[in-house]
Amino acid sequence: MHSSTTNTLRLISIVQSTMRKTINRTLFNTFTTKQIEKAKDAHSNLLTDTENVFELQHHTVKPSAMNDYESMYCDYASQILDKYSSKGLVHTGSWRVHIGNVQNQFVHIWMYKNFTHLDQFVNNAENNSINDKLNQYVIERSNQICLSFSYFGIPQPRAKSDDETNPYIYEMRSYWLKPGTLIEWGNLWHKGVQYRPDAKVLGVFSQIGDLYNVHHMWSYKNFQHRKQMRTNAWAKPGWSENVEFTVPLVRKMESKILVPLKISPLQ
Amino acid sequence: MYLSNHNTLKCLTSIQSKLGKLITRTLFNPFQAKPIVAAKDAHSNLLTDSEHVFEVQHHTVKPKSMNEYELVFNDYTSELLKKHGSTGLVHTGSWRVHIGNVRNQYVHIWMYKNFSHLDEFVDYSKQSLTSNKLNEHIIQHSNQICLSFSYFGIPQPKSKSDDQSNPNIYEMRSYWLKPGTLIEWGNLWHKGVQYRPDAKVLGVFSQIGELYNVHHMWSYKNFQHRKQMRTNAWAKPGWSENVEYTVPLIRKMESKILVPLKNSPMQ
């Protein structure tokens, strides 16, 4: 009686530990057995240190109307800024997608002071005339409200340098994370961004729109510069572990090469 | 009392083992318990052995303009090659989708010498009138920059053999992998491609654009030939294990049958 109970108990504890290992391995890939940190507070309190709110717009435009759209958008942006910049609206930048999943696309980023500032723009009736003209060229538009990760900071305008014949190329890497992994992502990239001090422009996570969507934007002089910066990061110890730990958190990732429009404050 | 304890323990053990099996089976294919190789260096250093960079373009065209598009594209290609052929731009091939998820689509592959070579094409204002004409017919265009797996090599031009009445058919198999699995994929297909020495054309993984996207292209004389080659592979020992191991790495897969355009260097 005694031995059979002991054996049964032993068997149970073995099964439990095997089950626990199986769960860890299956849910988080064989890479990592570290616990994923849970959120104890709102993401907006834990990951960001400013009130600024970003609107990221993706406009998919008819391929035959790309140039028309661009000149029209120039007027649209000046009009909006005339009206609202005194109240704190900032045009962070506008780009055309040069290489990406949807090539006939433009990306625009606008910065508001805080969430309350967004209320001024809810009433559509004010924006009508140029917006309608723009809409003739647009096939699809999507936008999201994002907050900036504290370790990425607020993007500053940058003028094109005189000796540059070609504009800077911007790489926007977008990640769709598994729900619940944003804090962990924040912690890992807080270390990770130190390996890439050279090229960082913008790092935001979405609050409204496609959720658990993170965008990192990097800028490079040209493709050769990009290749060098990225190779250098791999040479530094610790970068490959960082990649290893962030990879299981990602559902899907995408990258785009963006070229700034002429009116973009970020060149 | 003894009996009821014993029975309870037995019951518990059997439930736990069933649960354990259920979890393993549902969350993670029972196929594989081998750990996935993590990346220790950039994919571009580990998986490829040439500097060549491929641009894979997908143009979704208005169904009624397919023929016109083909004619304009002919002119567009000759123009591009006249301008940039001397600097090393290579037109690998152009195909029309014959069977696939999006049938009104063309696939074009261009090869650049290296990443720096891409910089010449960033300034889009240099784009010609012909590309504007092309854009009239296009609904959507997407592109990605890819690198070639070392064991697939660089695709060479191929002309149609004289006794062939029909062109070769090309099959493009596209895989969207789970993040972090590219090295493992490379290792497995390094062995796998030896089972299919006959038909391989191109094997690339994406670097910019949709990420963790792999394309393999195979060419066949006709559908019967395709069926034979694929059946033969299964007859060889080791092929089925290869498939078994690659399957858990895949998020999504798709295949297209492509027919080369008249001006494609690959026929």
Automatic annotation (TrEMBL), chain A:
Tree of life domain: Eukaryota
Gene Ontology CC: one annotated term: mitochondrion
Gene3D superfamilies, alphabetized: 3.30.70.100
Every NIPSNAP domain range: 55-117, 170-265
GO BP terms: mitophagy
PANTHER family reported in the protein's UniProt record: NIPSNAP-RELATED (PTHR21017), PROTEIN NIPSNAP (PTHR21017:SF17)
Family statement: Belongs to the NipSnap family.
Entry protein name: NIPSNAP domain-containing protein
Annotated source species: Rotaria socialis
From TrEMBL, chain B:
Short name of any one Pfam family annotated for the protein: NIPSNAP
Cellular component annotations (GO), alphabetically ordered: mitochondrion
SUPFAM superfamilies: Dimeric alpha+beta barrel
Domain NIPSNAP: 55-119, 170-265
Gene Ontology terms describing biological process: mitophagy
Family: Belongs to the NipSnap family.
Name of the protein in question: NIPSNAP domain-containing protein
Organism: Rotaria socialis
